[in-house]
Amino acid sequence: MPMLKIFVGTMYGGALDVAEQVKPLFEQAGYEVAIFDQPTLEDLTGSTTDLALFCVSTTGSGDYPGNFVPFVRAIDEQSPSLSGLRYGLIALGDSSYGDTFCGAGRSLDELLAGQGALRLGERLEVDAMETFMADDEALPWAEEWIETQQLKVA
Ligand SMILES: Cc1cc2nc3c(=O)[nH]c(=O)nc-3n(C[C@H](O)[C@H](O)[C@H](O)COP(=O)(O)O)c2cc1C
């Protein structure tokens, strides 16, 4: 069974909730799914990752949530080759923060691309000003992502 790893960056649990809600969709699509809520680079590169999904909210002024900082710092410092990594990205934010809207998700996307990883499809940006429960947007997005990117293996 291929392995889908979901990497979570969260302050208040919204992004973790998204990860837990979309997990069964990927299981139904034929994946073994692991959620990392204290992710390390080793979690990504230390064993096979057939597909990755990042669920990351933004704090401060466009900053990564604290639990996600070690992961990003390790990529910055070790500059691993991530070519061959295919991923999707769900960014949580709030447009009332203006220019830093979904800043962490956007920075992560750039960081991963810079290491050679390939994003499949468009990044989802969930705006807390418009959507109270991020799941309401994330679930249909994940269903469509699986469909349009032909990710179903079972
Ligand atoms: C102190 C604080 C700072 C925030 N800064 C930003 C920001 O710069 N950009 C943004 O898009 N959202 C910002 N947000 C909004 C959160 O990203 C948003 O509420 C998100 O849904 C939280 O997800 P979580 O429950 O996974 O932590 C901020 C929220 C708080 C409480």
UniProtKB/TrEMBL annotation:
InterPro entries in the cross-refs: Flavdoxin-like (IPR001094), Flavodoxin/NO_synth (IPR008254), Flavoprotein-like_sf (IPR029039)
In this protein, which residues make up the domain named Flavodoxin-like? Answer: 4-146
**Gene Ontology cellular component?**
cytosol
Molecular function (GO) terms listed? flavin adenine dinucleotide binding; FMN binding; oxidoreductase activity
A Pfam family found in this protein is Flavodoxin_1
Q: Which UniProt keywords apply?
A: Electron transport, Flavoprotein, FMN, Transport
Instruction: Kindly list the cofactors needed.
Output: FMN
Q: What is this protein called?
A: Nitric oxide synthase
Q: Which organism is it from?
A: Halomonas heilongjiangensis
